[in-house]
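Input (structure):
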């Protein structure tokens, strides 16, 4: 039997870390595996709400077996005291002999200090194992720290020719059951879902996660509604006290409607207008990051998608395509971008393609 390597154990830690996606903001989703004499003696991942940290969980499970062991951590152990003590200090106190980390923490409160604390007391530190996957996993956290905005994933469900509804606006259901279930799984791994006001009014969605066993993973629902057009009787407003609803809108406006939304449990967030009179999406994303969000899933509509693509705020695209053809009189997935030259069109790189019961999911990352 092959002997497990550092890369193998880091893969385990990264798989654990993924369990925290959508549940740990504003913290990163971290995984930790503790190995002694080639045997896993402890494992953990960041818990809902961001505490306890992965290292604390893994050390608790390992107990005395952590002494002399190697800790595989997907992000540099923290070195500052927040609601709990530094993870680097906890690793030292537990007698860990070696730490293998995937990537350094860009948070200025850490930024190499965690590694320095470990090395100062003679703990061997190895960096960069599994770095590419770790960077992809926590891209939202890194963007929040470095650009003060969350990761933005654009989710589209369309016909094979890129239409999201027929000419009458009928859209239910363009894709089948397997694709819809995969879409709900996407919701569970994001901190928030965002839609435009037109989509909210026409579809009257709930935007919850309805996969069996994951009903508690429903993210914050966000509506970009500059003029507060969303009906107070909508499903989103009616259950805002059960699953949070935020409305992004222009300052001023109808004070009576604003108060009515707030009375229903909706958080109303003021966003400035851009030069064209539309909502400034960069300001919107800064506002969301300031409230702790690291991962936002944008589900519609076409104008919201266009406004984000125009200002280079889309990082990933999850495109569900059915095998149907609707034609040019249907509703497009993305509204006009004003592109005159094909060379100026935003480019994407395909990272994965899945067959989902007759539908296809193509996953992309935007090229810089």
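Output (sequence):
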């Amino acid at each position: 039997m092959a002997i497990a390597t550092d890369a193998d154990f880091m893969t385990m830690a990264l798989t654990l870390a993924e369990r925290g996606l959508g549940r740990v903001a504003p913290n990163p989703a971290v995984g930790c595996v503790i190995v002694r004499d080639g045997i896993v003696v402890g494992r953990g991942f960041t818990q809902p709400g961001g505490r306890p940290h992965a290292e604390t969980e893994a050390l608790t499970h390992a107990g005395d077996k952590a002494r002399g062991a190697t800790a595989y951590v997907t992000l540099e152990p923290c070195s500052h005291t927040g609601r709990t003590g530094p993870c680097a200090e906890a690793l030292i106190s537990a007698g860990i002999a070696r730490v293998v980390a995937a990537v350094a923490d860009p948070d200025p409160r850490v930024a190499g200090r965690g590694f320095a604390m470990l090395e100062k007391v003679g703990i061997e530190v190895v960096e960069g194992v599994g770095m590419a996957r770790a960077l992809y996993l926590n891209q939202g956290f890194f963007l929040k720290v470095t650009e003060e905005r969350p990761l933005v994933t654009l989710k589209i469900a369309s016909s094979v020719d890129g239409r999201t509804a027929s000419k009458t606006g009928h859209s239910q259901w363009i894709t089948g059951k397997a694709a819809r279930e995969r879409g709900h799984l996407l919701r569970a791994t994001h901190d928030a879902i965002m839609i435009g006001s037109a989509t909210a009014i026409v579809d009257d969605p709930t935007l919850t996660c309805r996969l069996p066993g994951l009903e508690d993973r429903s993210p914050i629902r966000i509506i970009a509604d500059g003029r507060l057009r969303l009906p107070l009787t909508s499903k989103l407003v009616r259950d805002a006290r059960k699953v949070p609803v935020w409305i992004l809108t222009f300052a001023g406006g109808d004070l009576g409607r604003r108060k009515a939304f707030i009375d229903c449990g909706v958080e109303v967030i003021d966003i400035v207008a851009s030069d064209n009179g539309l909502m400034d999406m960069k300001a919107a994303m800064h506002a969301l990051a300031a409230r702790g969000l690291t991962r936002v899933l944008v589900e519609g509509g076409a104008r919201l998608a266009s406004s984000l693509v125009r200002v280079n705020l889309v990082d990933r695209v999850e495109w569900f395509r059915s095998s149907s053809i609707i034609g040019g009189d249907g509703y497009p997935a993305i509204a006009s971008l004003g592109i005159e030259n094909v060379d100026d069109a935003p480019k994407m790189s395909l990272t994965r393609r899945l067959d989902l019961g007759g539908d296809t999911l193509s996953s992309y990352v935007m090229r810089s």
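Notes: The chain has twelve helices and 16 strands. The radius of gyration is 22 Å.
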